[in-house]
């Protein structure tokens, strides 16, 4: 894919300190592309240290710009002269005080501000949106309601709300807003819809929910059993490659499900046992669904969530991304072990 990458103009990456954004920036700099990166505080040298340390090919540069998702016009300076915009900035957390303020507003209004700026910026010819499979479904049980029992790019999330799974609702609203703006824009919009993203970070301690799950595993919280929570899994490095393909392949278009493995949480965590089982309290068996249902409120879960996700298969059609973006996927064990090792080195547990 290297020969198709346009190095004549810089690209913009929003939310540069994020888990996915870090790998996108790394791949761009390695390929000789100059990057404009937006962050909340460009003066925070410690927070940007791992990005500044990234190797770069001749001609590639990395510049930081201050921008706030909720501030209109905030991205104008960073976007000036850019050919491609990667909009990755959006909160991914299950801990929040106010779902509207902490999840919906940053996702929806941030997408609106970034894409409206792209519409006003003549140099921008393509926008790659980091959406999510959460914009396609809420619970694994939704898969059964999809055509043929399999999620596709044609399916939209109709079951999330502000009250139930607001993160999924935030991603749904944000992506819908992006397509609405793109209808009247010169640029082409391409959406990347990854499932649960795992794997090592390029540095620091990301706040992504993925790391919160793995931290619980490393601390032994699942040693008496982990739920067979139906999920798709994908490596962050493969997600970064999907973004570059979406940006630079001439025919990339539409939504693209990016998922390497149809699995569940227990199966994924079990891939760690061979290498780390003697030192960490990793699960050896499934936590019974009836027990999880009973204690769900004490675990911070709803019984509805347990009913619709535990022991329920997750199914998605990944053929479009493989065919049109040329995607291939790492083995799940490699992803999980690389992530766990990274977290050991970073002293998460």
Describe this structure in words.
This is Dihydroflavonol-4-reductase. Residues 11-255 form the NAD-dependent epimerase/dehydratase domain. It comes from Paracoccus lutimaris. Keywords: Oxidoreductase. The protein has one domain: NAD(P)-binding Rossmann-like Domain (Rossmann fold). The protein contains 14 helices and ten strands. It has helices spanning 19-30, 45-52, 76-79, 99-120, 142-145, 166-182, 209-218, 236-248, 265-270, 273-276, 289-295, 303-309, 319-324, 332-345; strands at 11-14, 35-39, 62-66, 84-87, 126-130, 188-194, 196-198, 230-235, 254-258, 261-264. A seven-stranded parallel beta sheet has the order 3-2-1-4-5-6-9, with helices on both faces. The protein has a three-stranded mixed beta sheet with strand order 7-8-10. Strand 2, helix 2 (45-52) and strand 3 form a beta-alpha-beta unit. Helix 1 crosses helix 8. The two termini are 38 Å apart.
């Amino acid at each position: 894919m290297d020969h198709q990458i346009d190095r004549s103009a810089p690209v913009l990456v929003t939310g540069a300190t994020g888990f996915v954004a870090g790998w996108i920036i790394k791949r761009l700099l390695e390929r000789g592309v100059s990057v404009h990166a937006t962050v909340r505080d460009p003066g925070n040298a410690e927070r940007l240290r791992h990005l500044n340390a990234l190797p770069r090919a001749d001609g590639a540069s990395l510049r930081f710009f201050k921008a706030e998702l909720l501030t209109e016009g905030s991205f104008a300076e960073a976007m000036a002269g850019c050919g491609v915009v990667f909009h990755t900035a959006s909160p991914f957390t299950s801990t929040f005080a106010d779902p509207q303020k902490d999840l919906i507003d940053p996702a929806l209004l941030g997408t609106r501000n970034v894409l409206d700026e792209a519409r006003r910026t003549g140099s921008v010819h393509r926008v790659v949106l980091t959406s999510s499979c959460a914009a396609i479904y809420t619970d694994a049980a939704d898969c059964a309601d999809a055509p043929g029992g399999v999620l596709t790019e044609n399916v939209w999330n109709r079951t999330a709300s502000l009250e139930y799974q607001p993160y999924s609702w935030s991603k749904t609203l944000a992506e819908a807003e992006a397509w609405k703006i793109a209808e009247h824009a010169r640029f082409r919009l391409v959406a990347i819809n990854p499932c649960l993203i795992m794997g090592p970070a390029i540095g620091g301690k990301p706040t992504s929910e993925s790391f919160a799950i793995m931290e619980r595993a490393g601390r032994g919280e699942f040693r008496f059993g982990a739920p067979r929570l139906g999920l798709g899994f994908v490596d962050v490095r493969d997600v970064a490659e999907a973004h570059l393909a979406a940006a630079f392949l001439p025919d990339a278009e539409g939504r693209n499900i990016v998922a390497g493995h149809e699995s569940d949480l227990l199966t994924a965590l079990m891939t760690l046992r061979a290498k780390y089982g003697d030192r960490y309290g990793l699960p050896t068996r499934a936590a019974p669904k009836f027990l999880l249902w009973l204690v769900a409120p004490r675990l911070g879960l709803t019984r509805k969530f347990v009913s619709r996700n535990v022991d329920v298969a997750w199914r998605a059609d990944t053929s479009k991304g493989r065919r049109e973006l040329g995607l291939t996927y790492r083995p799940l064990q490699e992803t999980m072990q690389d992530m766990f090792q990274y977290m050991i080195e970073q002293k998460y547990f």
